[in-house]
Write a structure and sequence with these properties.
Layout lengths: L3 H11 L7 E4 L17 E4 L3 E5 L19 E8 L2 H9 L5 E5 L2 E3 L4 E2 L14 H7 L2 E5 L11 E2 L14 E3 L3 E6 L2 E7 L5 H7 L5 E2 L3
Parallel strand pairs: 1-2, 1-5, 5-8, 6-9, 8-10, 12-13
Antiparallel strand pairs: 2-3, 3-4, 6-7, 10-11, 11-12
Helix pairs in contact: 2-3
Length: about 210
C-alpha cells in the first residue's frame, strides 16, 4: 500500500500528462501515476515490450503480463506486445513523449542519480539511461528529503549520475521545479507548504518563479 506522500506526488505528476501522449512510467512512485490520469487517450509504455498498460484487479492477474518492474499489469483494448529490442528502439528513436522516473537524487543541473548506491546491491539502471536520452520530456517524482531529513535536491549528486541529460520537471511532496535556461525554477508549492520550508529543505540553489 502506497503512503499518502507517494500518492500526493503521483497525483500531481498526473497533471503533466496530455492527450494522446505515450508515457513510460518508472519503478516506485511513477507506477501510481496512471490511476490519477483521467484522459483515456493516453498510452502507457513499458520497456519490456508493451504499449497499452493499464491497472489490473487481483483476480485478473496473468503472471505472464508484467511491467519492467515485474509487477502485474493489465492490457488496454488495442494494446500491443513486442520484444525488448523493439521497445528500446522506440525509446531511442524518440517515440516516447514523456518518461516519469523515480530517483534517488537530483543535482543543481537537474541531472539525476537513480541506479546505484555505493556499497549497496540494488536493482540497477534498467531503461533509465535510454529514457533520459530518448524521451521528449522527463519528469522525476521523489520525496524531497531522505529518511534522516537531508535534502535529495543537491548541489552535486553524491551517487553516480544516470545521464548528463537534465530532466525537465521535478515533483516532490513539497514543491514542483522546472529546469529552465540552466537553472532550477521553483514554480509551485504543494498544499500547506511554505517557501521557507522549501528553502530549508533544498541544498541546490534555485530561482523563485512562484506566481
Amino acid at each position: 500500500m502506497a503512503n499518502p506522500i507517494q500518492e500526493l506526488i503521483a497525483k500531481r505528476a498526473a497533471k503533466e500528462v496530455a492527450d494522446g501522449q505515450i508515457i513510460n512510467l518508472g519503478i516506485g512512485i511513477p507506477t501510481l501515476v496512471a490511476k490519477y490520469v483521467e484522459n483515456d487517450n493516453v498510452h502507457f509504455h513499458t520497456e519490456n515490450g508493451m504499449l497499452g498498460v493499464v491497472g489490473v484487479d487481483e483476480e485478473d492477474i496473468d503472471p505472464n503480463v508484467v511491467n519492467a518492474g515485474k509487477m502485474p499489469v493489465g492490457e488496454a483494448i488495442g494494446s500491443s506486445f513486442f520484444n525488448s529490442a523493439e521497445s528500446f528502439g522506440m525509446i531511442r528513436g524518440g517515440h516516447v513523449d514523456v518518461a516519469i522516473l523515480g530517483v534517488l537524487q537530483v543535482d543543481e543541473q537537474a541531472r539525476i542519480a537513480n541506479w546505484a548506491v555505493p556499497g549497496k546491491n540494488i536493482i540497477g539502471v534498467g531503461g533509465a539511461m535510454d529514457l533520459l536520452i530518448g524521451a521528449q520530456k522527463v519528469i522525476v517524482t521523489m520525496t524531497h528529503t531522505s529518511k534522516d531529513g537531508k535534502s535529495k535536491i543537491l548541489k552535486n549528486c553524491t551517487y553516480p549520475i544516470t545521464s548528463t541529460r537534465s530532466v525537465d520537471t521535478i515533483i516532490t511532496e513539497m514543491a514542483v521545479f522546472n529546469y529552465v535556461d540552466g537553472q532550477l525554477h521553483l514554480v509551485e508549492l504543494m498544499p500547506e507548504v511554505t517557501l521557507q520550508q522549501v528553502e530549508a529543505s533544498t541544498e541546490a540553489s534555485f530561482v523563485n518563479a512562484l506566481k
